[in-house]
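Incident review: delayed structure delivery

Summary: a single-chain prediction request sat in the queue longer than the usual turnaround. Root cause was a stuck worker, restarted by the on-call engineer. No data loss occurred. The affected request and its eventual output are reproduced below so the record is complete for anyone auditing the incident later.

Affected input:
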Amino acid sequence: MSETTTALRLGLGTKVSYGLGSVAQGVGAVALSTTIINFYLIRVIGLRPAVVGAVIFVSLIIDAVLDPAIGRLSDTFRSPWGRRHPFMYASALPIALAICFLWRHPANLGADALAAYVLVMLIVVRLAGGLYQIPSDALVPELAPDYHARTGLISYRWFFGLLGAAVVNFLLLTVYLRKDRSHPLGQLDPKAYADFGLMAAIVVFVAILVSAMATHRYIPYLRQPPRERQTLAQSAREIMATLSNRSLLVVMVSGLVSGVAAGMAASLAAFMNFYFWGLTPQVAGYIGAFTAPAAVVGILLAPWVSRALDKKRTMLTVFFLSIFVGVVPVTLRLFGLLPPNGSPLIPLILIVDGFVAGALGLMGFVIIGSMIADVAEDAAVKTGVRSEGLLFATNGLLPKISNGAGALVGNLLLETVRIPVGAAPGAVDVINPEVMRHLVLLSLPVGMVLNLVATGVLVFYRIDRGAHEANLEALRLASSVTEPPTILPAAGPANEPAPVSPAV
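Output delivered after worker restart:
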């Protein structure tokens, strides 16, 4: 259990290149977005909301079940390219192909066959995405062992992930789904979604390879699992010991509750934009573009504020504020305190609200990612096993299940208010305002309560800076007893280790 990675110093080039890998996650998040898929399958293709909700739910359950297995495999895998990189390289082509075909279903499929086709494509995309994201995220504790340095490294990941998502979402709404005389269908045009899927697939493929190659030089400095065979019982005991970490359980429970709220909100988002606020795809795209700089603000503030307040207090503060900021416009509309749809003030109000909520939310997510990385050392001290991949996979397990459950809940609400499905070519894309008002009155209080509970649970997280430094010292002492000291090559001119050509 060597701790030699404490000597690694990452230059700006490596941080940026590693962060660029999250462009794949950001673009993939748009391509897999419940918001987009839900609207497309219900309003464009004509599947029933309950069927779509069930398809999304099942795909996320399968993904969540497989993720810990991927994490565990990447923790114990041995190869000349280390534990993580073989999976990152192997994921690039499958995820690109699956994204492309997700939006290009065969013609003349019946409703049941179409639902089955979408389910298979979603499972393949999510599985291939896990093969990249879990090993890539699991590099953080090794590349940045320092308590605050890893927050900065995760900030790069969040920045490029959100930048990629924002740019691709803007292109989707303003270019592919634009509504004008030349493109009268706008968001109801199936060909536009197919073209978007091809573009997203290409971007994801390139981003994964760039990030994997950028961190390839660090493979000689990363840990290799011991050469020993474990029985199934031994492996199960290690997994249970890791997953029983108190701080990890707190984060998992919080993710479970917040995931239901997030899934519900995502399933309703496009319907809110187009029918509650009366936005065109272009206006929605510009709102997203103007709120995107919130990512920069959140990323710059997260390391600074976490140093001042420590991670847990920062996270609780920003998450609590973001909950209330995010519901202000809808609440004001319900009370008749906003101008009517079509007023230029509506996009301005949504931009301001989205910017503040986005900056606060992003700060919280950056801190949460850093807190999970801190659990890696805490669990290693208690169990004697490094399980970063398992930890990051498990952190995403319950939120994926609950996000799918939230999408199902949201779609059942769409069924309850009897949202129209399908749309004939050339039809007027309008839904009765009372239907949307009924939908908001059902969903708004549920979402607020769930988010408040999720935030409150995190009060019980226990790792602070002092505990983290004690964990690092304990691991250092254990390493010095069991292994001879390792001398690293001198750092290069950019404060990075000298490049090494790993054995292939």
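Verification: The chain has one domain: 21-219+241-482.
Action items: add queue-age alerting; document worker restart procedure.
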